[in-house]
């Protein structure tokens, strides 16, 4: 669903965090929630949504304010959950050792394959092992360093919370 600038600007007056999410990766869900709050229908056509936003009454404004509070609370909970997960394992030795073994194993398998030809029946098994270790390396790096796109999205959405 394409949200017009009129809808985004009007929602932004009452619910800036929600308005910020209208153009982001959660846009479809947020548009349905805004539509439900303003028109009473989650699947209202664009024209009806635009008209309802331009002619909002007290009930619609209160519904948008409630949606803003709920959305802000969800963002804070999600950010706290990720921060707690990283903080919980910060000083623990086992996750660091496991991460090191996964990364070392990945590069050991790749390095070995550069210099040693795999046995004829093991090619498929080695391909599966490389895929598995590659996915694990990705998970390890995202856990320790975060996903950059997710961090950008969270920062953009949370900046609306601070205002």
Descriptors for this entry?
8 helices, 80% helix, Holin of 3TMs, for gene-transfer release, transmembrane, elongated, transmembrane helix
Textual characterization of the structure:
There is one protein chain. This protein has 163 residues and is mostly helical. The chain has two domains: 5-84, no CATH class; 89-148. It has eight helices and no strands. It has helices at 5-14, 16-21, 27-39, 46-54, 58-88, 93-115, 123-145, 148-162. α6 (93-115) packs antiparallel against α7. The chain starts with a helix and ends with a helix. The chain crosses the membrane at residues 92-113, 125-145. Keywords: Membrane, Transmembrane, Transmembrane helix. This is Holin of 3TMs, for gene-transfer release.
Strand share of the residues? under 5%
First-residue to last-residue Cα separation: 27 Å
Morphology: elongated
- The residue fraction in helices comes out at over 70%
Tally of strands: 0
- Annotation field: number of helices: 8
Mean pLDDT: 77
Structural class comes to mainly alpha
Keywords: Membrane, Transmembrane, Transmembrane helix
Organism: Tranquillimonas rosea
Transmembrane segments: 92-113, 125-145
Protein name: Holin of 3TMs, for gene-transfer release
């Amino acid at each position: 669903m394409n949200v017009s600038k009129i809808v985004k600007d009007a929602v932004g007056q009452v619910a800036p965090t929600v308005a910020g999410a209208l153009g982001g990766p959660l846009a479809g869900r947020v548009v349905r929630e805004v539509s439900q709050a303003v028109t009473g229908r989650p699947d209202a056509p664009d024209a009806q949504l635009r008209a309802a936003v331009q002619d909002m009454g007290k009930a619609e404004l209160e519904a948008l304010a409630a949606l803003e509070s709920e959305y802000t609370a969800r963002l804070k909970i999600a950010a706290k959950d990720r921060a707690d997960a990283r903080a919980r394992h910060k000083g623990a030795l086992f996750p660091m050792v496991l991460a090191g073994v996964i990364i070392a194993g990945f590069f050991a398998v790749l390095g070995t394959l550069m210099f040693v030809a795999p046995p004829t029946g093991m090619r498929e098994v080695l391909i599966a092992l490389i895929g598995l270790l590659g996915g694990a390396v990705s998970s390890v790096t995202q856990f320790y360093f975060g996903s950059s796109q997710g961090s950008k999205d969270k920062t953009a959405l949370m900046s609306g919370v601070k205002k």
